[in-house]
Amino acid sequence: MRRGMLWVLGAGALLAVVVGVGARVPAVQDAVVRAAILRLVASQPNELFGEDALRVLLCGTASPLPHPSRAKACVAVFAGGHFWIVDTGPGSWNRMALLRIDGARIGGVLLTHFHSDHIGDLGEFNLNTWVMGRSGPLRVFGPPGVERVVTGFGEAYALDTQYRIMHHGADFLPPAAGLLEAHPVAGPADGTGPQVVLEENGLRITAFAVHHDPVKPAYGYRFDYRGRSVVVSGDTTKDEGLIQAARGADVLVHEAQANHLVALIREAAASAGRPRVAKIMGDIPSYHTSPVQAAEAANEAGVKLLVLYHLTPPPPVRIVEWVFTRGVSQVRPDGWLIADDGLLVELPADSSLVRTRQLQ
Ligand SMILES: [Zn+2]
Ligand SMILES: [Zn+2]
User: Fold this and answer.
1) Among 2, 95, 246, 299, which has the highest number of CB atoms less than 10 A from its own CB?
2) CA of 86 to the centre of ligand 2 (A)
3) Residues 112-154: pLDDT tens digits?
4) What SS3 class is residue 274?
5) 237 alpha carbon to ligand 2 midpoint, in Å?
6) Do 139 and 29 reside in the same domain of the chain?
7) How many domains does the chain have?
8) What is the number of the ligand closest to the CA of 90?
9) Is the same domain home to 227 and 128?
10) 10 C-alpha vs ligand 2 centroid, how far in Å?
11) What's the domain range around 7?
12) pLDDT at residue 7, rounded to an integer
C-alpha cells in the first residue's frame, strides 16, 4: 500500500476516534443538540406561502392499510397566503408538523367524505393550528353530515381545550378561536352539479360529486388560482364527473388502488385462515380506481401531471411501487408519478411550468 493512502487511512481512523470520544463529552453533546434544535425551530418553509404560485403538498399518501412512514389521506394546497387541507387522515398533522408548516395560516379544511382514513386527525388540526396562533374558528367544509363530524370532534376535544386555556391563559389561547365551524356544501349532493365553495384572495375552490357508493355523497375539489389549477379526487371509482371537473387542470391528484395486489392479499389471507381480511379485500375493488384507470382519467381530462395518492396497498418498498403502477406507462408514458409524503408540486402563476420536489 502506498504511503499516501496509509496516511489518509490513519487520519480517518484518528478522526473517528476523536469524534467518538467527543460525542461522549457532555459539553460537546450540548453544543450539537443546541445547534440542531436552533436549526429546527428557526426553519419554517415560509416560501410555500408566496403569492407567486399555486402549491400542492402531499401530507398523507396512504389508505386504511398500515404503513410505517406514510400518513393517511391528506393534501395541502397553498394559495393567497394560506393553506387549505383536503382531508385530515390519521398521522397527517404529524407530517405537517415535521415539515414545520405554520399552522396559524390555515384557511380551512375540506372533507371529501367521512371514512375514518379521511377525518381521523381533524381534532389534531384544529387544536394545533389554534395553539400556533390561528385567529378564528377552523372552517370545515364537506358534504351534508359534516355538522355531525364537527360536533363530535369538538366534544371529544372539549376537556383538552379547557385544560390548555387554564394552563396558558385565555389571552394566549382565545376560546372562541379554538372552535370548529361546520360548512355543509349541498349542491353536488343535491345533484345540481359542481358548486363553488368559496372565493378568497384570488383562490376559487369548487366541490363536485364522485362515486364511492355506498358512501354518498362523496366529493372531489378543484382549486383555481392565478391561472393555475389542481384537482383532488378523494375516494372514487373512475368517474366521468371528475374528468369533467378536471378538464384542462394542471395537476390531478388521484387515488389509486392496485387491484392485482389487493387480490394477492386476499388469496394470502384466505390460505392463512384470515377470512375477515379476505372478505374486506374482496369488497374494496368495487369503490376505488386502479392506477391504470387513473391514468386514463388524466388523459381524458387533459391534465399535465397525474399524482397518484391514497395508495392501496401503500407500497413498502420501490419494487412494490413498480408492481403497483404496472401498465400505467403504456396508457400514459409521461406526466405521472406516485407520491411520497412530503411531495411538493409548484405551479408558478400565469405560466405552464410544473415543478416537483421532496420536502424533508
Ligand atoms: Zn373512502
Ligand atoms: Zn379512503
Assistant:
1) 246
2) 12
3) 999 999 999 999 999 999 999 999 999 999 999 999 999 999 9
4) coil
5) 12
6) no
7) 2
8) 2
9) yes
10) 56
11) 3-39
12) 72
Looking at the fold, whether 126 and 168 belong to one and the same domain comes out as yes
CATH number at residue 270: 3.60.15.10
- Ligand minimally distant from the alpha carbon of residue 73: 2
Query: Which one of the listed residues 52, 87, 102, 117 is annotated catalytic?
Result: 117
C-alpha 174 to ligand 1 mean position (Å): 34
Dihedrals phi, psi of 252, to nearest 5 degrees: -120, 115
Query: Do 289 and 349 have their domain in common?
Result: yes
Q: What tens digit of pLDDT does each residue of 266-289 get?
A: 999 999 999 999 999 988 888 999
Active site residue 117: yes
> What is the tally of helices (H) and strands (E) in the chain?
13, 15
145 and 184 in a single domain? The answer is: yes
In the numeric block, the cell 496516511 is attached to: 7
Give percent above pLDDT 90 in the chain.
86
Ligand nearest to the CA of 114: 1
- Please indicate, yes or no, whether residues 119 and 211 belong to a single structural domain of this protein: yes
Residues 7 and 102 in one domain: no
Q: Please determine, for residue 6, whether its predicted confidence score (pLDDT) is greater than 80.
A: no
In the block, cell 378523494 appears at 234
- Kindly state whether residues 25 and 52 are assigned to the same domain: no
Q: Give the strand order in the sheet containing 203-212.
A: 195-200, 203-212, 215-225, 228-232, 251-257, 305-312, 336-338
